[in-house]
């Protein structure tokens, strides 16, 4: 399925570029992962839905995928530059727990959210497991590229060619001036210099600290990603992803470290950036502004579920927008995505009902069917492939999938084969879930499904007996308990909470 070459937007060159694997037949991807000091908000999860979609497209194109989403469990300060406290230690103090327990708890919660969004399993290296390698990296570049201050070992950005070119690329679209936003630490040679090792201040102890040639302390956040990327994927690897905020500080700093590392290792390309393609997803925003954890209660996937929304409705909401466009979150938008998902799942159910043998088919045979698309469906398959190959145009790909679901003239098992193959790329589990899976009881619902169904049955009987007073009374009493009866709903949903 590689007729159309895959083109991806490279933030480094600001151009669409054809994906050319560095290692024949393979794709190696590193996605900046979460700082596990708190729950992830759904904006963060947009970054991983995007990364997962990229991974799935690469696999669909036939590449063997190695995909890393790291876990930052130390070293990320409350500001992305060099100011503030370590997010982990701060939360540990607030919750009166150890930083290690905090990290474990929120990593597990993060992984649960990934699974609920049907993000395929990835490698999740923890920064604290790579500290030795980070120190070795620091030692290797220290002489030529770093200097020591009381607070730590700093990277001198003037020692590498063209520092910040990634961020400057961003200035086209934004007001830019990323360097100007970096706060000054006394003694820094350049405003944009950043700590690769942060010393524990004299007289203090940190929960997470290690011995190093520059004293006891902890690694800098930017160094962590450089080191884990290099250790797990080798330089250069194919694609590095992150949210658009990383284009301004975190990724330029990673690139600077990578250049320094490659130079001191005798690699001749002084502009070696570590990864060939750098991709950035745009933000999920709220009407009130940027989504943030600092602002008290924030939007978590669990909150969506508590309100009765299936996590995959959120995945669909993400796929309905191009990853490089800003996406505004609203409950109405999520409701619309859930309705669309229901329609797709129900269309899938109808095709499955036409082909009873499908469920009995072994997986290999289903796969075989998914590779044998009948001629009449070729234009839709082509459209699907062309849109995803065009910098992951998922909104367009979704419409092709919907048309396949609706194309009545084709043999159901052939249709199912193609749906299965397309859905493997989009990850909506259309043929694995059914409409009842999508109806999630909100946390505050007063009735169980069985109770609702029993009431509705009673109402049906009353209506059959033309006892409209009883039927209306049942409807009103359900409404008082938060259940809306939906007579004649086109989707066949008889009630909603
Ligand atoms: N609103 C958002 N929409 C899309 N991606 C986001 C959003 N906010 C953060 N990201 C991305 O989520 C990933 C994880 O980010 P990170 O752990 O730094 O959390 P953060 O939300 O920026 O943290 P904090 O809220 O503490 O500032 C990064 O790739 C980041 O760019
Ligand atoms: Zn990172």
From TrEMBL:
<dbReference type="InterPro" id="IPR015803">
    <property type="entry name" value="Cys-tRNA-ligase"/>
</dbReference>
<keyword id="KW-0547">Nucleotide-binding</keyword>
<keyword id="KW-0963">Cytoplasm</keyword>
<feature type="domain" description="Cysteinyl-tRNA synthetase class Ia DALR">
    <location>
        <begin position="383"/>
        <end position="438"/>
    </location>
</feature>
<keyword id="KW-0479">Metal-binding</keyword>
<dbReference type="Pfam" id="PF23493">
    <property type="entry name" value="CysS_C"/>
</dbReference>
<keyword id="KW-0030">Aminoacyl-tRNA synthetase</keyword>
<dbReference type="InterPro" id="IPR009080">
    <property type="entry name" value="tRNAsynth_Ia_anticodon-bd"/>
</dbReference>
<comment type="subunit">
    <text>Monomer.</text>
</comment>
<dbReference type="InterPro" id="IPR014729">
    <property type="entry name" value="Rossmann-like_a/b/a_fold"/>
</dbReference>
<feature type="binding site">
    <location>
        <position position="254"/>
    </location>
    <ligand>
        <name>Zn(2+)</name>
    </ligand>
</feature>
<dbReference type="InterPro" id="IPR015273">
    <property type="entry name" value="Cys-tRNA-synt_Ia_DALR"/>
</dbReference>
<keyword id="KW-0862">Zinc</keyword>
<feature type="binding site">
    <location>
        <position position="225"/>
    </location>
    <ligand>
        <name>Zn(2+)</name>
    </ligand>
</feature>
<feature type="binding site">
    <location>
        <position position="32"/>
    </location>
    <ligand>
        <name>Zn(2+)</name>
    </ligand>
</feature>
<keyword id="KW-0067">ATP-binding</keyword>
<keyword id="KW-0648">Protein biosynthesis</keyword>
<comment type="similarity">
    <text>Belongs to the class-I aminoacyl-tRNA synthetase family.</text>
</comment>
<protein>
    <recommendedName>
        <fullName>Cysteine--tRNA ligase</fullName>
        <ecNumber>6.1.1.16</ecNumber>
    </recommendedName>
</protein>
<dbReference type="Pfam" id="PF01406">
    <property type="entry name" value="tRNA-synt_1e"/>
</dbReference>
<feature type="short sequence motif" description="'HIGH' region">
    <location>
        <begin position="34"/>
        <end position="44"/>
    </location>
</feature>
<keyword id="KW-0436">Ligase</keyword>
<dbReference type="InterPro" id="IPR032678">
    <property type="entry name" value="tRNA-synt_1_cat_dom"/>
</dbReference>
<feature type="binding site">
    <location>
        <position position="293"/>
    </location>
    <ligand>
        <name>ATP</name>
    </ligand>
</feature>
<dbReference type="InterPro" id="IPR024909">
    <property type="entry name" value="Cys-tRNA/MSH_ligase"/>
</dbReference>
<feature type="binding site">
    <location>
        <position position="250"/>
    </location>
    <ligand>
        <name>Zn(2+)</name>
    </ligand>
</feature>
<dbReference type="GO" id="GO:0004817">
    <property type="term" value="F:cysteine-tRNA ligase activity"/>
</dbReference>
<dbReference type="InterPro" id="IPR056411">
    <property type="entry name" value="CysS_C"/>
</dbReference>
<feature type="short sequence motif" description="'KMSKS' region">
    <location>
        <begin position="290"/>
        <end position="294"/>
    </location>
</feature>
